[in-house]
Design goal:
about 170 residues; alpha+beta; DNA Methylphosphotriester Repair Domain; Arc Repressor Mutant, subunit A; 2 domains; 8 helices; DNA repair; metal-binding; Metal binding domain of Ada-domain-containing protein
């Protein structure tokens, strides 16, 4: 479909999404290579060189664009990157013994706290703190189910955290 330089140039001018993984182009004057869908400013046709694979472009001494990141082999979409970051944060929260701050979570996935909070809520449907509370409660429930002494302690009135959680839920 994009075999000739003319058809590749047309796809590049139109930012044709079908060409996203069909070929790459390098700009001689900047030494940068991009995907045809990159939102960067279009170079002059005389300065553009087309390649079939990213490895060919790197051998020709071009460096990857910072906007479209053509060197990523799996060409993840933003949503896939977000899901991956949220999954990593959830694993961190599930494995943590205590509380984990939003700043710690955001730093662990390489994002700012505000941006991470927004994508976490978009992906999971709840805020990171609401997820953490639910995860801690589920972990406490699993731990309590393994212990017969917990039932006896709740009946006697020893105020374990799980007893207090259950008491609040039954009163509400």
């Amino acid at each position: 479909m994009f075999e000739t330089p003319e058809s590749r140039w047309r796809a590049l001018q139109r930012r044709n999404p079908l060409a996203a993984s069909a070929f790459f182009y390098g700009v001689k004057t900047t030494g940068i290579y991009c995907r045809p869908t990159c939102p960067s400013r279009l170079a002059r046709q005389a300065n553009v060189v087309f390649f079939d694979a990213a490895t060919e472009v790197e051998v020709a001494s071009f460096r990857a664009c910072q906007r479209c990141k053509p060197s990523q082999s799996d060409f993840e979409s933003k949503k896939a990157q977000h899901r991956k970051a949220v999954r990593k944060a959830c694993e961190l929260m599930d494995g943590a013994g205590g509380r984990v701050t939003l700043e710690t979570l955001a730093t662990s996935v390489g994002l700012s706290p505000r941006y991470f909070h927004g994508i976490f809520k978009d992906v999971m449907g709840v805020t990171p703190s609401a997820y953490a509370v639910k995860a801690r409660k589920e972990k406490a429930t699993r731990t309590a189910l393994r212990s017969e002494e917990t039932d006896q302690a709740c009946m006697v009135g020893n105020g374990t955290p799980l007893c207090r959680i259950e008491a609040k839920e039954t009163v509400s």
